[in-house]
């Protein structure tokens, strides 16, 4: 615990003793959670700032001033601090394994530690060379006579994927073979770097250095930089198409038969590599919805791109994705090359601590094993507390749909139906994760440090197959008790999927919840409540995307409100980098933020009116209950981030930076202005619904 935190707790305790003598009628919450919440709030807030002028600096000012970003990180955030606690808990659990899952995680962690020891560098390079040799080589480090795409043994992407799966000892139906392999190739490298002017050169250097490292020592190989350019141009074009695909995803019907899907899979498989969570919104059976046929054109352009891209370029890209992942998981020059590249992208000064890196590997490659251990040790009422908030937020959304003047009766009924049939896959099943089923899930894997890379890819194949099967299975209300449908609890992920009408939020995202004192649970509506409300707000995406088909009266009004939000965020300028935000790119997430905070506050207000107990206060924190809601909400976004990472986020993310997510939400809220008595709080407010 930091000295400042300890000092705050002491101050709070002394304050409590004092107020007891001064005013015995005041009722203060003295539970451990309340005292801790008070200390954290005081540690983060800048009481000297004016909340009506800049609420982010008010809520997070001291956190920003007192936080230094360690060399091995590019950001420190409140959300990240809760994730750190999960990591530490998991590490302590697996150090004393007393079950099959703990032993499996312990073995993977130890294998990771061993293979990242500097003494194993030569073994790592040798293993990677053997891997690409078995795959027929990497064209980038082979001349045209060694690798000729026009010879009798023409290279086939689908056959090569099948070959790789067999090489790693995993054979399943071809429909899963092709699709799920691309899932396992998810890269930790931000795909935007392939076309960012400031990142392209260091990215090319990283690829080139890797190529020379893996070149035959007895040959004077010259890496053709133009081939790398071709590979990155291919990636750039795919990303542009994928952006359109994500925007159009709600227009696709995902109920195609497997046979039809296989016929069109060649055009889809790359998308599954880039954004697997989004592919659930896509199908090979495309139904024409809008008059401009844009949904059809995306797939036509995808097929054109693949048919016009040389097999050599596609092969280079496929092998590179394997190397980018595998090479960064073991000690050796490729791991160093990747760090040097990422340093230029996000500003990180040093590599992550080894134990922490290996805990991340355990969580990523054994997601449900890790999740079973973490959720088993949650408070008994953790799930019920979250369900209560979810129900209240959902009820609030139903009222918003019923009251808004922006929808006609037809669209209103469609939205009501969507909301009523929504399947909540939040945190974990009520019965928890079935450990015996999870043991069976991983029964094919025998961890061995000598075959560490093979083990990792095997685990990715298993996870990818599960994602594929669950994604294309028909959604059902019974899914709430199917642990395979949930997000891995240790991930920091949350999303709404329109195609199967599911709301998925991982456990780690919800760790700020307060359980011990019922009268203080209002704080949960600013954290857990907002997260649920933001994601549930994305239910309207399908309707927003089709706004051009609305009756003119509603269409014009919505477009005007949307434009208000775009223009507002266009004038926001990051104080550290002086970069301007892109209101148009951010508008969908900003709508979800504004809708989400409105729903969360409404749910909190109804809870407050229904709760008949005594209103209790936090010791040492002189704010009303309504004001505490806003402060607690804003402090969820407290963060300190390196300039390089801020620039990357502003250039590429679909969400605004933490600072302007908070500022945008409060500037557009009448409730906030009332609670803090902000007479001049952003006179022109953007209201969507």
TrEMBL record:
Membrane topology: Single-pass type II membrane protein
Location of this chain's protein in the cell: Cell membrane
Signal peptide range: 1-24
A biological-process GO annotation: protein processing
Coiled-coil ranges from the UniProt annotation: none
Peptidase M13 C-terminal domain residues: 494-680
GO cellular component, one term: plasma membrane
Cited InterPro entries: MetalloPept_cat_dom_sf, Peptidase_M13, Peptidase_M13_C, Peptidase_M13_dom_2, Peptidase_M13_N
Cofactor(s) of this protein: Zn(2+)
A Pfam family this chain is assigned to: Peptidase_M13
Top-level taxon of origin: Eukaryota
Keywords: Hydrolase, Metal-binding, Metalloprotease, Protease, Signal, Zinc
GO molecular function, one term: metal ion binding
Peptidase M13 N-terminal domain segment(s): 51-429
Similarity field: Belongs to the peptidase M13 family.
Protein name stated in the entry: Uncharacterized protein
Organism: Polypedilum vanderplanki (Sleeping chironomid midge)
């Amino acid at each position: 615990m930091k000295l400042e935190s300890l000092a705050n707790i002491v101050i709070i305790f002394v304050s409590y003793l004092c107020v007891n003598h001064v005013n015995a009628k005041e009722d203060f919450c003295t539970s451990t959670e309340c005292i801790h919440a008070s200390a954290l709030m005081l540690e983060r807030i800048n009481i000297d700032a004016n909340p009506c002028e800049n609420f982010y600096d008010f809520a997070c000012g001291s956190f920003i001033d007192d936080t230094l970003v360690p060399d091995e990180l590019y950001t420190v955030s409140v959300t990240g601090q809760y994730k750190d606690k999960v990591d530490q808990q998991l590490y302590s659990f697996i150090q004393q394994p007393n079950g099959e899952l703990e032993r499996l995680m312990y073995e993977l962690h130890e294998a990771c530690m061993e293979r990242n020891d500097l003494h194993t560098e030569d073994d790592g390079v040798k293993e990677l060379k053997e891997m690409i040799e078995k795959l027929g080589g990497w064209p980038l480090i082979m001349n045209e006579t060694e690798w000729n795409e026009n010879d009798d043994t023409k290279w086939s992407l689908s056959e090569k994927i099948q070959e790789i799966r067999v090489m790693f000892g995993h054979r399943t139906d071809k429909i899963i073979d092709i699709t799920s392999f691309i899932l396992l190739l998810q890269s930790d490298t931000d795909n935007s770097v392939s076309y960012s002017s400031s990142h392209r050169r260091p990215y090319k250097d990283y690829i080139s250095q890797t190529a020379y490292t893996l070149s035959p020592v007895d040959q004077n190989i010259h890496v053709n930089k133009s081939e790398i350019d071709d590979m990155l141009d291919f990636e750039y074009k795919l990303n542009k198409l994928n952006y359109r695909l994500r925007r159009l995803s709600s227009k696709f019907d995902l109920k195609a038969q497997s046979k039809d899907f296989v016929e069109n899979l060649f055009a889809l498989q790359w998308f599954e590599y880039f954004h697997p969570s989004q592919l659930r919104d896509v199908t090979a059976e495309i139904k024409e919805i809008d008059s401009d046929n844009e949904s059809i054109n995306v797939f036509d352009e995808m097929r054109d791109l693949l048919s016009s891209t040389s097999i050599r370029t596609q092969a280079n890209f496929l092998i590179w994705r394997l190397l980018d992942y595998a090479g960064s998981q073991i000690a050796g020059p490729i791991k160093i090359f990747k760090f040097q590249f990422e340093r230029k992208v996000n500003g990180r000064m040093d590599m992550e601590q080894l134990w922490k890196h290996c805990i991340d590997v355990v969580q990523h490659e054994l997601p449900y094993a890790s999740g079973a251990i973490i959720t088993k040790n949650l408070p008994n009422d953790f799930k019920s507390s979250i369900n209560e908030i979810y129900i209240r937020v959902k009820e609030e959304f139903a009222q918003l749909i019923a009251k808004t003047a922006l929808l006609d009766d037809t669209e209103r009924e469609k939205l009501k139906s969507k909301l009523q049939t929504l399947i909540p896959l939040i945190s974990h099943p009520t019965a928890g994760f079935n450990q015996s089923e999870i043991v069976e899930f991983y029964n094919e894997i025998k961890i061995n440090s000598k075959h560490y890379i093979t083990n990792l890819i095997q685990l990715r194949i298993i996870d990818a197959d599960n994602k594929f099967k669950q994604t294309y299975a028909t959604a059902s209300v019974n899914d709430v008790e199917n642990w395979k449908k949930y997000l891995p609890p240790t991930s920091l992920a949350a999303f709404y999927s329109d195609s199967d009408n599911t709301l998925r939020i991982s456990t780690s995202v919800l760790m700020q919840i307060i359980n011990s004192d019922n009268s203080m649970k209002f704080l949960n509506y600013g954290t857990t409540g907002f997260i649920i409300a933001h994601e549930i707000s994305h239910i309207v995406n399908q309707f927003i995307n089709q706004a051009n088909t609305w009756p003119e009266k509603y269409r014009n009004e919505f477009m005007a409100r949307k434009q208000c939000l775009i223009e507002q965020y266009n004038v926001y300028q990051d104080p550290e980098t002086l970069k301007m935000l892109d209101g148009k790119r951010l508008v969908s997430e900003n709508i979800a933020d504004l809708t989400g905070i409105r729903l969360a506050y409404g749910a909190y207000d109804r809870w407050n009116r229904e709760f008949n107990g005594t209103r209790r206060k936090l010791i040492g924190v002189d704010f009303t209950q309504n004001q505490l809601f806003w402060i607690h909400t804003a402090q969820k976004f407290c963060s300190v981030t390196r300039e390089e990472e801020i620039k990357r986020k502003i250039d590429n993310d679909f969400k605004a930076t933490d600072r302007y997510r908070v500022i945008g939400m409060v500037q557009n809220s009448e409730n906030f202005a009332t609670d803090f008595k902000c007479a001049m709080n952003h006179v022109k407010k953007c209201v969507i619904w």
